[in-house]
Write a structure and sequence with these properties.
- The chain has 18 helices and 21 strands.
- The protein starts with 5 loop residues before the first strand and ends in a 5-residue tail after the last helix.
- Strand 6 and strand 7 form a beta hairpin.
- It has 518 residues and is an alpha/beta fold.
- 45% of the residues are buried.
- The chain has three domains: 238 residues, Rossmann fold (3-Layer(aba) Sandwich), CATH 3.40.50; 121 residues, Rossmann fold (3-Layer(aba) Sandwich); 119 residues, Ankyrin repeat-containing domain (Serine Threonine Protein Phosphatase 5, Tetratricopeptide repeat, Alpha Horseshoe).
- Strands 6-7-1-8-10-11-12-15-16 form a nine-stranded mixed sheet, sandwiched between helices. The chain has a four-stranded parallel sheet with strand order 18-19-20-21, with helices on both faces.
- Bound molecules: asparagine (ASN).
- Asparagine binds next to loops.
- In the N-terminal section; belongs to the asparaginase 1 family.
- Its EC number is 3.5.1.1.
- Keywords: ANK repeat, Hydrolase, Repeat.
Length: 518
């Protein structure tokens, strides 16, 4: 019998309209969101007994961590047959998001890091004003992310009669609790976007965000949330989850070109003390006036010579910067980096992220600005191989073929099949809920497991027996597989620890290797 699987999601409350109440000074963030806004609502509380959930906090002196028990709530069963258990962790200071900065981003990233192995996914509640910046910043800060991180907020507070907060939060919980989308995403008005592709486009409409250069990762309609798996990004490579913090937002700036802008004005910005990076918002495909006697181009080239990185993004909502016109060409000859189809938000936070890396140089930053680190820009398109007809029944056949090839340890065959149907195959599950990584966790060939991990297969999915690939590898006594899975960020799920403790009585070493005592 398949066990009832309950997902665990941590809600991180940073502030924003979603939790606000009226005050004599206008709307301000209010505390106790779980108790006041969620507990009374049937969609967020199935009235089952509350189980305490451990959340790891910074202690008051910020010198270490402390584990605190929080009361949890559970949703009723979703359309996907799961219930989502969650708890709300509130930041000590709740903000209107117009006041968030790199310190707040660090706080979010550290909260996710401290609690990473205890939850299946994370939902960050945040004001909408600077939400696109926070999404972009976090996408760079979270490295080898293997679980969904969904940011959301609302245009109208949860306690207002007519609001968008309920839908936005419920949709985010469903995504974080059910779908292995290991990206920093933004869920708003029934659509899930890649976070670093978003911009805020409306001050009060419910449709507050757009992702002009990248299709939504998922869309919710009246019956379900349809994920566009083909365009979901997955970490490729062997590496455990980690974070980079303290983005350098103090030494970057952003300047919008306008007709008649004077080179002296641009020069004055470029001579700001300590400036290390500038995002230049230009016209169309990346054009700017070159100024009398090329004065503007010279100002830019001089600054680049002084070690300042200048990135060219377009003022247009859609399209990419490319040197097709003479003015754009001369910017690129002067050493200005083409930001392709990055949003200003992504370009600015990416610059701040790269500048915070101790070993960075202006050359390394310029190089990284022009390539996709987290799917924030479109590089040249990759060829896609497909079956001539991708019927659904074929899907099961292909997965079965792949399962046999993995179980035989036939790397060549695995490679052929994965190349044919890469986009959906890796995290798909067979009749017993096993994904290719589950099968590979006991495959005779370690190379097959490594290959699938490098293609972006998830180490966190659980099968119908509630087991992760790591559990299966340890149970089968496959020590090398256990090591490789651990290097890739795998950990035992809290629901399988009790069984692991029993099994560890007979084989303590391998279960120790699997991280049972951590
Ligand atoms: N000022 C609010 C904020 O960004 C706007 C909102 O959340 N809708 O915190």
């Amino acid at each position: 019998m398949a066990e009832e699987i309950e997902s665990r999601v941590l809600l991180i409350m940073t502030g924003g309209t979603i939790c606000m109440r009226q005050s004599p000074n206008g709307f301000v963030p209010a505390r106790d969101f779980q108790e006041h806004c969620l507990a009374p609502m049937p969609a967020f509380n199935d009235k089952s007994p509350s189980i305490p959930i451990e959340v790891i906090n910074d202690n008051a002196e910020r010198t270490g961590h402390e584990v605190k028990e929080y009361t949890s709530l559970r949703t009723p069963q979703t359309a996907y047959g799961r219930k989502v258990r969650y708890t709300v962790y509130e930041f000590p200071e709740l903000l209107d998001s117009s006041s968030i900065d790199a310190k707040g981003w660090t706080e979010i990233a550290e909260t996710i890091e401290r609690n990473y192995t205890h939850f299946d996914g994370f939902v960050v509640l945040h004001g909408t004003d600077s939400l696109a910046y926070t999404c972009s910043a976090l996408s760079f800060m979270l490295q080898n992310l293997g679980k969904p991180v969904v940011l959301t907020g609302s245009q109208s507070p949860m306690l207002e009669l007519q609001n968008d907060a309920t839908e936005n939060l419920l949709g985010s919980l469903v995504v974080a609790g059910h779908f292995m989308i290991p990206e920093v995403c933004l869920y708003f008005n029934n659509r899930l976007f890649r976070g670093n592709r978003c911009i805020k486009v409306a001050a009060s409409d419910f449709a507050a965000f757009e992702s002009p250069n990248y299709a939504p990762l998922a869309v919710t309609n009246s019956t379900r949330t349809n994920v566009n798996w083909e365009i979901v990004r997955r970490p490729r490579g062997i590496g455990a989850f980690g974070i980079r913090t303290d983005l350098d937002t103090r030494h970057v700036a952003c300047l919008r070109i306008f007709p008649g802008i004077q080179p002296e004005m641009v020069d004055a910005v470029l001579r700001l003390e300590g400036l290390r990076g500038l995002v230049l918002e230009t016209f169309g495909a990346g054009n700017a006036p070159h100024g009398q006697d090329n004065a503007m181009t010279k100002v830019l080239a001089d600054a680049i010579g002084r070690g300042i990185v200048i990135v060219n993004v377009t003022q247009c909502l859609t399209g990419s910067v490319s040197p097709v016109y003479a003015p754009g060409m001369s910017l690129s000859r002067a050493g200005v980096v083409a930001g392709l189809d990055m949003t200003t938000e992504a370009a600015l936070t990416k610059l701040a992220y790269l500048l915070a890396i101790p070993e960075c140089t202006p050359e390394s930053i310029a190089k990284d600005m022009a390539v996709s680190l987290r799917g924030e820009l479109t590089e040249i398109s990759q060829p896609v191989f497909r079956h001539p007809d991708g019927e659904l029944s074929e899907r099961a056949q292909t997965l079965t073929m792949l399962g046999y090839a993995i179980a035989r340890g036939d790397l060549q065959r695995v490679d052929v099949i994965v190349k044919m149907e890469h986009h959906w195959l890796l995290n798909d599950a067979d009749y017993s809920g096993n994904t290719p990584i589950h099968i590979a966790s006991t495959s005779p060939s370690l190379e097959v497991l490594e290959y699938l991990l490098r293609q972006g297969g998830s180490v966190h999915l659980r099968n119908n027996q509630n087991r992760t690939p790591l559990f299966m590898a340890a149970n089968a006594g496959m020590g090398e597989h256990v090591k490789l899975l651990r290097q890739s960020g795998a950990h035992l799920h809290s629901d399988e620890r009790a069984a692991a403790e029993v099994l560890a009585q007979r084989r303590p070493e391998i279960w120790g290797e699997a991280g049972l005592h951590e």
